[in-house]
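Schema walk-through. Below, the input block comes first and the output block second. Nothing else is stored per chain. Lengths vary across the set, and this one has 421 residues.
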Amino acid sequence: MRVAVGALIGVLLACGLLASSCAPVAQRSADLEFWTLSLKPTYTDYVEGLRRDFERETPDLRVAWLDLPERVLFLKLLASVAAGDPPDLVNVGTVEANRLAARHALVSTDGIVDDAARRRYFPQLWNAVHLDGKSFSIPWYVSVSVLMYNKDMFRAAGLDPSRPPTTWDEIEAAARAVRKSGQYGYLPVIRILEEWQADGLPVLDAAGRRAAFATPAHAARLEAYARLYRDDVIPPETLTGGYPEAVRRYKEGRLAMLATGPQFLLSIRQDAPTVYAATGVAPLPRGKAGIVPAAVMHFVIPVGSRNPTAAAKLGLSLTSPRNQLALCRLVPLLPSTVETASDPLFTRGAGEHPLEDEAIRIDAAQLPYARDLNISLPKADVINRTLQEMVERAVYGRAPAMQALQEAARTCDAALQKGEP
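--- output ---
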């Protein structure tokens, strides 16, 4: 137990989540306890229904549910592990799950989930938290972006709104055409680590000890952004405003294309009905490796769980095809199970709003190519900070892309040679 506690303290310190004090851990009053992230009050009835169903199916087990904000959840997780009484199942994202797995703070699902149960899930999503040949999570819901575009702005730029861009080069060409009409076509949210991986480009070498991104192939993506910025094809606020700025501009009819999840259509329909009426949806172009970036939420079993086998059974129940379908009917997310993705909800739509139905159909068709590229890196703070500075230097034209990459690689190599903190 001491090893697991030390490992978890290390990862939470690395994430900046260790407070000077933590509230005492409450005495457990159930056989199993699971924690989720910020689902109350919107999804209270849904989750309570799942909990009650599981207890009916397994009458020998009592289940307690605790819902917490993200930062509070990790602080409380630390306190519970230190007290020797962690929850049995925890809802986390891929980065956090990978960090915990890397520090031996999670129970592998390999020995407690059989092949038949594992095959219900898309394999690349099941293996999103994978280390040393072992899997460490049960994937839950998935978010994949589509390309939304303003048909009126396309027409004004001389573009055919029935033929949206299908590649990143075509997105750049459309953005240039829209800019000539006096508006901006695209505001990229630059996630360089994801973009490199979607193109099949590594971030570190196989041993995880040296940067592998100082190559012409890696530089090409940065050079493309620098060219767009230099030519005033993307807004000056691209690096400072990010996704919120892109959303604001799109809702105001001042941005022709936006990469986001189908759930955003509800916000457009409510806040900007004129823009909604002009919106079309299309698949987000895949990277050169045929990958579409995704964000996956998981259930993981902390080391120290009193009953890992029962915890896995609970995780499989919460994420079953039937229960995922019920969740996706409440909110336009994607499931991690193959059976759910084949439901008419994802092939025909619910029928109430045709545009949302089309977005969901497009999104679900991308699931076989979806990968969660939010990897956990050694010396993550240093690498992420260094790469952010490198992107800014290259895009703003303060240094050629290759030079910026080479300098960033030297900084990251120096940090990696020092080993784990």
